[in-house]
Amino acid sequence: MKNVTAYIDLAFCLIVLPVMAIIFPVERWFHNFPWYVTTVGVWLYALYFLNRAVTVPMLFGNRARRRVGIALIILSLVATFGLSQISLYNPKPNIHDEGIVRILPSVQQYQQAVWSLFMIVEAFSFAIGLLTQANLQKSRRRAVEAERDKAEIELYRAQIKPHFMFNTLNSLYGLFITNDDKALESLEKYISMMRYVNTTSQRDFVSLAAETDYIRQYVALQSLRLNDMTTVGLHIDIEHEGLLVPPMLLVTFVENCFKHGVSPVEKSEISIILTECDRKLSFSTSNRIFPVKRIGEHMGIENCRRRLNLLYPGSHRLDISPDNMFYRVNLSIDLKV
Fold it and tell me: What whole-number distance in Å separates Cα of residue 247 and Cα of residue 154?
């Protein structure tokens, strides 16, 4: 935008204003009154940049700044009026003008030129100044919205860590109180996963390879506490391991499968599929529903939904289809955007 306004300023100063000025007999006036033509020209150029740099921005400020802007407009009118009232010569009566009624008989041509050029400068400078300020306001709003979105994403990401910890510790607790042989192995995997959580909690994005490895570890950890009644299917196929994705995003849906899709007495099947082709990520989960009410059970899903809306507006699709028996999630993200 800065380059565009600079080009417009040059076009106005070097083309528009000079072309408007030559409509009047400036050459003759300059020959007879060089000091006057020079003064008016300097004033018009100064007025243009004064409006662009000071007057218009003042009008977009608070009440005190707006008053200053209005005062500058009034002062520019007074200064222009002063220039136009300078008497250069007394024109001789023209016998050809007899019988012609003039609207402003006392206004000379050079005075008309001063006011005409003044209006052109005012209109052009205010138009460009208003356009510039409008774009600045828009840029500021975008910056504020970006900061707000970033803060919101940070909040959602901060919620994921304790949410994951409490749910996984609950699973470990069940293994330890039953003296399960897999308890120590599960604790080792949990410690390894917590290292990943701690290292990525302050990062906006991680590689797709790192995130899929974490999902594999999570599924392996949760599978240790399952009996033969539950079957877990995990399929991961990615082409570009270096693609960046938000950390701890997909695992929330995986966690939801193990939270609500496992029963110690009924057969169930958990399906997790993650593929990436041509930078398009496809992720789906499916599990049976065994109602288990826990505090904040919907927080993780809503958290992910909001993060997706903030991070991938218009470039993702999330479909969640719960019914009386199954809970299915289908997510697609275009990582090209």
Answer: 11
**Cβ count near 89 (within 10 Å):** 9
Q: Which of 97, 110, 101 is nearest to 31 (CA)?
A: 110
Tokens of 284: 């789906």
Residue 60, token pair as written in the block: 């977009």
Q: How many CB atoms lie within 10 A of CB 12?
A: 20
Contact status, residue 282 vs residue 332, Cβ threshold 8 Å: yes
Percentage of residues in the chain having pLDDT higher than 70: 80
Alpha-carbon Rg for the chain, nearest whole angstrom, is 36
Do residues 221 and 184 make contact, with C-beta atoms less than 8 angstroms apart? no
Least confident of 137-146, 188-197, 255-264: 137-146
Alpha carbon 126 to chain centroid, angstroms: 28
Instruction: Please name which of 259, 261, 164 lies closest in space to residue 214, comparing C-alpha atoms.
Output: 164
Distance from C-alpha of 9 to C-alpha of 128, rounded to nearest angstrom: 9
